[in-house]
Amino acid sequence: MPHISVLVAGETALLRDALTELFHTQADICVLGQTTGEHEILCRAAALHPHVILLEPWADGSAVIRTVRSLRRLTPRSAVLALPARGALIDRRALEAAGVHRYLPRDAGWDALLAAVRSLAPAAVRNAVKRPVPALSRRETQVLRGVATAMTNQQVASSLGITTGTVKRHLHAAFRKLDAVSRLDAVTQAAAAGLIILPAAGSVGGAETLGDAAGPRRPEA
């Protein structure tokens, strides 16, 4: 199965490791490696030609701009996704002018990052990646319906007549099956796969929302 290839580049080792671990949980994303330092970043990118280069800008703004321009010249088919970084004295517009395809805002979360990586991959790769529809249990589906209406774990538990711990267990199982990294990601993926129907804007979750009428019935886990 084709994968979206990513090169993680930046000076913060903890951030590189965290991003690599995140991508390893995604069935359609493959990390080709980590790299740091202007020269090493250029060498690895030119050798690997990843679909997406995830770049953490460092303090020397002129070096970052120079690196981005060199990346665009050495591997023009790779998209450059810039992350916000503390202490990086560089303007977003300057990055975009140098050739950065997208710049994540400081308040962006994991969901936004994954969405950006997937959107920057070539269309041929995105279309070729077929993610199988997971089989959620009936209870996992009901719990996700509650989450979709912004219900807390306690509210979902009360509506279904189960404990909060059981709600958490079903949520974790759904996360694993959907390769989700957050509640929002799980709900979005479940809706996209046709496993749940998102409620109308402004609707309030309740026991009737979590019943079987809102989606396909699944065998109990």
Automatic annotation (TrEMBL):
Keywords: DNA-binding. SMART domains: HTH_LUXR. The keyword Lipid biosynthesis does not apply. Residues 129-194 form the HTH luxR-type domain. It comes from the Bacteria. One of its GO terms (biological process) is phosphorelay signal transduction system. One of its GO terms (molecular function) is DNA binding. Pfam families: GerE (PF00196). Residues 5-121 form the Response regulatory domain. This is Uncharacterized protein. It comes from Streptomyces scopuliridis RB72. The lineage of its organism: Bacteria, Bacillati, Actinomycetota, Actinomycetes, Kitasatosporales.
